[in-house]
Amino acid sequence: MPNDRASGGDVYSIPPDSHSSNSEQPALSELSPQDKPWEKHRAFTDRVEDFYRGSEFHHYSERVHFCSELLGFGLISETGNAAKLKLRSARFCRLRHCPVCQWRRSLMWKAKAFKVLPRVVEAFPTHRWLFVTLTLKNVPITRLRDQLSEMNRGFGRLVKLKAFPAEGWLRSTEVTKGRDGNAHPHFHCLLLVPRSYFGRNYIKQSEWVSMWRKSMRLDYNPILDVQAVKQGNKPMELVPELLKYATKESDLVADREWFLELTRQMHKMRCIATGGVLKQYLKELEEEPEDLIGESESGEMDEAKLYFSWRRKEKKYRLTDTSLR
Ligand SMILES: [Zn+2]
């Protein structure tokens, strides 16, 4: 490892990324293949910075610019295994549509859900789980905010219907970009239903459609998908689909005007909601996670600290000359 000083205990303060010779330093993705996703997400963040520059959100472009520019990793040696890197420090812009930040947020939400859902399964051992996707016709991106508000009201009416079978729910909002450039907002819902749902209280797909249509006060049948988690299987398998990004990266960076309008339309909109008996377990998911680094609880000790800085031109993180205790 070229970074011998890291274990020496001395403090050096050579500014990162200051010399051209740094390009010979190893890249993060070479030293730690599991951290390869950093480069993909951070490259998208550069695009988002470009989109914000010169717009009414110019101040966002500065925040995004410095987002996760320098990553500090602890080096952990595991007996019998190769050394492993663990993220210890980074500065995040925390903007909703920053590709790095939404990726980190999604990781934190997933980790939380994987931890908490087994407790729900234990508390409701005979209950079953449904995964329901609620959609509507696409809308022009300039109408997205109104549409999302209307969907929130409609969902509020849905869960109050007498026939609504779930005792608890977790809902996430996703907005994708349709081929026609319109926005396609939809809800992914994890529903906790009593066992009787698969007996006398079963709801057919067509009935689900009419419940959603009625709640949304539509004059057409909306597209709706209901899947049941097989008996004995765990709701955790749905977590990746449920808590993925609000808008996928390829849609974020496809079109500048669309992206800027998305920023306007989604301002301060909440994307995750919980209700019923699941609220007490999963309410934390409704808030922005404070920790985007992912604190280790295993008490692993760092043998050294390694810093990697973002190289905009080559779209890689490279080891810096900076070494700290
Ligand atoms: Zn960010």
Question: How would you sum up this structure, described in words?
Answer:
With about 325 residues, the chain is α+β, with helices and mostly antiparallel strands. It has two domains: about 5-95 and about 290-320, no CATH class; about 115-285, 2-Layer Sandwich (Alpha-Beta Plaits), CATH 3.30.70. Helices cover about 35% and strands about 20% of the residues. It has ten helices and nine strands. It has helices at about 30, 35-50, 60-65, 100-125, 145-160, 205-215, 240, 250, 255-265, 280; strands spanning about 70-75, 85-90, 130-135, 170-175, 185-195, 225-230, 270-275, 305-310, 315-320. Strands 6-3-5-4-7 form a five-stranded antiparallel beta sheet. The chain has a four-stranded antiparallel beta sheet with strand order 2-1-8-9. A hairpin with a 4-residue loop joins β8 and β9 (about 315-320). α2 (about 35-50) runs antiparallel to α3 (about 60-65) and α5 packs across α6 (about 205-215). The longest helix has 25 residues, at about 100-125. The radius of gyration is 23 Å and the shape is flat. Mean pLDDT is about 90; it is low at about 1-20. The chain binds zinc ion. Zinc ion (ZN) binds near residues 67, 92, 93, 95 and 101.
